[in-house]
## 1
Amino acid sequence: MKYKIAYLIILFTYLVKAQNNYYLGVEELFNLGIEHSTQLKASHIKNSISIEKEALTEIEQLPSISFTATNGYVGKASIYDKNFSFAEHPDIPNWKQNYGLELKQTIYQGGKIKNNIKSAYISRQISELSLEKDVSDIKLVLINNYLELFRLYKQKDVLLKNIEEAKKRLNNIKNLKKEGIVTNNDVLRSQIDVSNYELSLKETQDNIIIISQQLDIVLGIEEKNIIVPDTLFLEKKIFVENEDYYVQQGYEKYPELRISDYNIEKAKVDEKIAKSKYLPNLFLSAGNNLVRPLPNTSPVQDLYINSWGINLGLSYEISSWFDHRHTLNEAKYNINLQENLKEQTRENIRMKVKSAYIKNKEAMDRIEVLTKTIQQAKENYRITNNKYFNQLSILTDLLDASAVQLNAELQLTTAKANFIYTYYLLLQASGNL
């Protein structure tokens, strides 16, 4: 078994050498992630669509211009008497032409055009805030994977150190067995302990490769790169403000809450648009027509006639009053709904901030406790190790002391990663990420 494990470790070492180490800082992590994120590319496309929609609504203010041209062949006409007996073929032109140019300008439409422009503008603002929220969400996902990678590297270092210590302990136990002081059972149990550490190391190394490849794909770099995080990142000093500060920041900056404000404003604009449906439309039009042959003349004359005119029109849709009450009620209910959703968002901000703040404080407390625990675990292992080799304790006590020391070191790394992650969670919940 130990030879197989040794072979796997040698194979892994060879593969790592065949791959490239890519040293990645947090700033570059965010920049590459934002640049290559397919989700953000979709958000940018949606934002571009909202910009084009806003431009289209502004065009509605301009007059509409239409041009028509008709050119066709007129077949020979036949005239019949009352008994459908053929009478004659009148002499009429065989070609007809009609050219028209019309310009139409809306003067009043109950504020519909103005409110449509305002609604499109609000939709664009919502799209930009959604893009901002997506960037924040992407950063949080990236930092979570980055911290997991960091934790794995720390775990690898701890395991390598414990494997080295376990092998030294195994050699010392083998020497004791040669002297007849301990039984072969202690040797076997120590070998199993080394094998378990080596298996854990192999699993950790595989996880480093997996997460590195996932980040390679997301960041748009070569997939064979093994990402190495900033070694000083976990030791970075972070000052955490009080809980109320992050709640207030969330109320001012959190994208979803600002989106809620725009949704309320848009709902109010939609109500105005609904009201405009029951107001008259006033428009001005001007046109020119060139027609051949002369219409409504007998006999038909093969001549052109050109005419122009200016009209002031008023239209009113009477049937709109049938659904007047329901349409306006729907618009009002939508305003109430958006105001309710804003309150829900405010509650969610408070809950997210409070949860992240508590978890951050918990991780900080765990760091303090585990720092002391590691010192105690190391001292306990040193004492137990001396006792065992002086035949004052059994091997189980020594292995337990080693396991306690290992777990404390791994838990400290996890606590440091959690502290930083919950800090970024606070930033995200308060709209500062």
## 2
Amino acid sequence: MSITNALPTGDQVVQNLPWRWNVQGRIFLIGGLGFMFDAWDVTLNGVLIPLLSKEWDLVPAQAAWIGTANLLGMAIGAFVWGSIADAIGRKRAFSATLLVFSVFTVLGAFSPDIVWFCIFRFMAGFGLGGCVPVDYALVGEFTPKKQRGRVLTAMDGWWPVGAALCGVTSAVIMATFADWRYTMLIMVLPALLVFWVRRSVPESPLYLVRKGRTAEAAAVIEDLIRRTGGAKTEWRLPEPAEPEKLTLRTMGTQLADLWRFSTKTTIAAWSLFLTILLVYYLALQWMPKILVDAGFAEYRAFLTTSGMAAVGLLGVIAAALLVEKVGRKWILAVTGPLSAAILVVVALVVDVPTAATIWLLAYGFVVQVAIPVLYAYVSELYPTELRGSGFGWASTVSRIGAGFGPLIFVSVLWPYLGLPLSFALAGVLVLLAVLWMARFAPETRGAALD
């Protein structure tokens, strides 16, 4: 094989292969299942809050730690697993995230009290927190560049699927067994199945080259060419490049680079991620409890929340159809504040089951138009060398906000302001973020990334 520098590298060949559902599509489906479990696990917090509040006689401030512990674990896991993937490989990290999640979910199901339960939920979140970034990295590296944008956008469609499955499964379990422990144990079975299936996903050739395993890297690339029917041409392996290790020093450098690039852009990215996703997590975690307190039976509250999540799949489709026609800023400017306003309406009509259900379905659709566009927009605000860290830090800020925000919501705002005003205050925060974006952040539709 020629090693002339004029030849394309193996990873470039992989990025130009034809799309095949039984090759790259299979990796997309397996990676998407990890994203689905992330949604299932976050939605499970909302299911567990009313159930454990009754089981252990928890006040809302105590119950809020069910979601807070889980989301903080995810925030830390999102960073740590990136370094783990660099050390042990995408494939092993790809599988290990779900294994860690499964072990601590089982332990959580047998917790004797709320303290141990939160510890195990934190560790389960830590495992699953690495699932999404590792999945995105692996799916992106194997997807042809012509399809990459659509495929990575479609990954977000797994979220409403996972959230809806959580609600439906929990409703069936509570109607049949009336035991919250089964709601946790049942999701471990498909998680372990996905863990087993993930063993067949090939290792990233770029990782193999970096580790000096060039023969294995060449074998993976040649196998992909053969299975997709790609053109057989000469190519060379890329030069190995050891990635920078993630330490406190490099994290500080990343942060400084983001703010040095543009203070206004970084404020826009962080504030949009923080406020829009805070509103989403407030609804996802506390809506089952709100509905139960309003008189809904537990199984009906879970089914209603499941419907709210499921209709979000239509929102993702609408976002994909509108994002290039309308532009990122206009969609976020409308759907962000509108989703919060709909929650205020839900709080006002929650005692009328039919009206509350209709407005919750409207909320599920609108907020899932906003979230995929938000992901696309923030990733486009930074140049290539800052894009990963820019998106990663904005996502981490949102996870921390989603962890502590509901704690403040149920401990301070809801008891003193009431539910409608509390949601309205969250909406004001979204509106402020949108106004900052409108004034200081650029529109990225059709813009070159660099």
## 3
Amino acid sequence: MNLFRDKQIKFFIIFLFSFSLLIFLSSMGLNAVQEKAIQNLFLSHDKAIVTSLLEQGISKDVIAKAVTNTVSSQEGTALLVSIGITEHTSIRFLPFIAEFQRISGYFMLPVGAFLSILLFGGTFIFLWKREQLYQRAAKVITRFTEGDFSCRMPQMSEGTIYRLFASLDQLATILQSKNEAGQKAKKFLKNTISDISHQLKTPLAALTMYHEIISDEPDHIKTVIEYSEKTGLALKRMQQLIQAMLKITRLDAGSIVFEKESCRISELVLQAIGELTTRASSEGKEIIIDESSEETIICDKQWTSEAIGNIVKNALDHTDSGGEIHISWNRTPAMLRILISDNGSGIPPEDLHHIFKRFYRSKKSLDTQGVGLGLSLTKSIVEGQGGIISVQSTLHEGTTFILSFLTES
């Protein structure tokens, strides 16, 4: 039974069983003592009667018959009544009975007092320990309500009460997790808003300045055209910034469900670079796709192609005219890897561990295009699908990004 798994209850039940056994043994002992006392009292009573009759000259045969007689008569009862001995006679007038009562009291009162003290003592100890247990649990629950989940409910034994405590611990863990998730979400939202507002300050300030210049010189066509173009670029940068931040925020918040499907990597890559080939051509750069082997991958085609496109775009930003971007892929027993390499300026060692942070721009690439969100967005897309993104780079020689996806079994 679950009841006996609780050590305190088990010990209390053992105590009650032992107490009941002690009462039984005490009753047997008292009964033996009373039997002996009654025997001695009757012997004393018979001796006194026999002695009195002998002193009055009654024959021994008559006395023996009287002592062993077990039949009463009306004459005998009437005689006892005449001398004041009835069932209503006070015990104090019956010396032998009074003696028996005194002897019984000497034995029963101490035994009864001892058993009572033992019962109340054992019960008090059990209730006191239980109360201590409840007080400890109440203090822990109070800490839980105050938001402190570092304490744990008492778990010293088994039993129903401890299973209840274990359930409360589980509940506290769930509440702690939700509390931490809530705090993390608040911090995430605060940082996101801070990032967006900070990054929008520069293009907004530029737009304000361009508007003032155009307003001050409406008749200078060249000035209007020049700053209109700058306004368009600033607006385009703001649009890119807001779209990228919204995508990253949705990915980090887990509100995007990736719709995975089987697709050929060659088609995925062509979709990713579709809008970048024109730029590469105009800048005198070349995107080379290694199609020596055809592989398929299980992924969200739209999001994964965007991730690949972001890396290629980053490579174009850091590659001089005449540069090359190579895209290849291979399969290992456990992973399918997509490699995107360039022969551009490379990444300084001190920047290598920061390139996936939002808005991070190396001191050596402040004059390049972009808002510093492409690699961060790519990392969120790849890791959101259970993949891994890594980078290898040598300064002034080039960079290789590796997108690794687990092979579906």
## 4
Amino acid sequence: MGAGRNGGRGRAGARGGGAVEQPNLVAPADVPSLSARFWVLVVATGVLAGLAGAALMTLLYAVAHLTYSYRSGSFLAAVERAGADRRVVALAVAGVVAGAGWWLLRRWTGPGGSEVSTALWRDEGRLPLRRSLGTAVLSMVIVGMGASLGREAAPRLAGAVLASRLSDWAHLGTAHRRLLAACGAGAGMACVYNVPLGGALLTLEVMLGGLSLRLALPALAASCLATAVSWTVLPTGPTYRLPEVPLSASLLVFALVIGPFAGLVAVGWVRLIRIAHGHRPTGWGLLVAPPLVFTAVGALAVPYPQLLGNGKDIVQLTFGAQFGVATLVALFLLKPLATAGSLGSGASGGLFTPTLATGALLGSLAGQGWALAWPGPAAGFAIIGAAAVLAAAMQAPVAAVVLALELTRTLDALMVPLLFAVTGAVLLSRRLDTPSLYSVRLPAQ
């Protein structure tokens, strides 16, 4: 994408290290006109990404139900019923599966990465099929067993690699290949969270760095098709249930104040992920590190079962103000550490929901203090914090706001305070030259 040649570099700041590539802050080179054949490939990408997303989510549910012996209800409720011993054992086994699985996968598939960001920004949109699909399956298995990682990495990767393979078949040029792979990644994200517009904006703002009409139409088409296809298996409702939150002066001023603090939290979170990713083991170390780290996370889950899984239940519970201050503080500190440690051990997984959970915990914790002086709705505090941290961490304010809308479907009254908080968070994070979560995971050149 030529980000470096076009000046697309952001620095991590004087205290954060040297220069770090920030490709998603620079628009890609112009994409040639889109032919009828390319549109056929967009349709095929959307359909295949939807099928892959539905299959991976079915695998996730099956593994979670088997690991914690439940048929219905929330993942957290099942983890709590399972008991302390089972949490530790489940995470220890997940660590063995992760370590052995990725060690064998790398040994059998040979060289070649399986990171969507690296493929788009460094490798002309090319992804190895076996390595990528194997990584996606392993990622879903360990998240289903309770790993503190996001579930979106697997469908994003599956959608991108299927698009890459279609590009090989159609002999597409580099610009079209990158666009199609980005559309596949966004479509994979869209279908598992039921966020077609959010998935398209992630394609544009995060992966392609441009909002032009020529890029937007295929991104929208692929995400909408994938979401519609996934409805044959996956739920069609919102991911999070948010009570009605009326606009108030308290929320408006809170959003202005919390924005910069959310930006600081996002800066710390991104730097933590960079450190973790930079210390990922290689060779035989991959067989040892995941079992050790995952078992430690399982031990932390004895007093704090909310640490297991991607953090979806944490977000939902903050909306209902169901955590006390002590629990909020503990989870706010431990959830990022558990996720960064899991990633740093060599496991592959997403960061979307863990980031959202960190922001929701920040908003809920700050909101409880704020409400002592100026009462306001707990759900409003939490969702404002979640959107602000997400926007600054991804360096994608528009996508973050739309994702907050689609994930809850009830945020119309909160639009202005949400935008205030997101603006403050992103401005501060960029003032500190903070790259996105996706940029810091690029391999060094």
